[in-house]
């Protein structure tokens, strides 16, 4: 007998009851998102502009940065939207 349950999403309920904590949580998520976007953007631009970095290792690093960028652009806005108002 196998377990066939799966989790499709989760909600952060009553994480912050006061407006100040909600604002702090939003700012922290925004800062983490911007830092990740900046870091991945730097990796992408460095590998794309540096011709000596066109090796298989940096090709996979570029693909990892692009995948991470796509992941951040889809999951972070959803977590911001689920913040209690």
Automatic annotation (TrEMBL):
The G-protein coupled receptors family 1 profile domain, residue ranges? 39-85
Which InterPro entries does this one have?
GPCR_Rhodpsn_7TM, Olfact_rcpt, Olfactory_GPCR
Annotated Gene Ontology cellular components are: plasma membrane
One of the record's GO molecular function terms: G protein-coupled receptor activity
Signal sequence segment:
none
Segments spanning the bilayer are 21-44
Q: Which Pfam families match?
A: 7tm_4
Q: Which UniProt keywords apply?
A: Cell membrane, G-protein coupled receptor, Membrane, Olfaction, Receptor, Sensory transduction, Transducer, Transmembrane, Transmembrane helix
Membrane topology term reads: Multi-pass membrane protein
**Subcellular location(s) per record:** Cell membrane
The main location is membrane
Q: Which PANTHER family match?
A: OLFACTORY RECEPTOR (PTHR26452)
Under which name does UniProt file this protein? G-protein coupled receptors family 1 profile domain-containing protein
Annotated source species? Serinus canaria
């Amino acid at each position: 007998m196998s377990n066939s349950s799966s989790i499709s999403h989760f909600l952060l309920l009553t994480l912050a009851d006061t407006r100040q904590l909600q604002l702090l949580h939003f700012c922290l998520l925004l800062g983490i998102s911007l830092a990740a976007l900046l870091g991945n953007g730097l990796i992408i631009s460095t590998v794309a502009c540096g011709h000596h970095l066109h090796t298989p290792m940096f090709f996979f690093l570029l693909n990892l940065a692009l995948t991470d960028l796509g992941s951040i652009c889809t999951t972070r806005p959803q977590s911001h939207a689920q913040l209690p108002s």
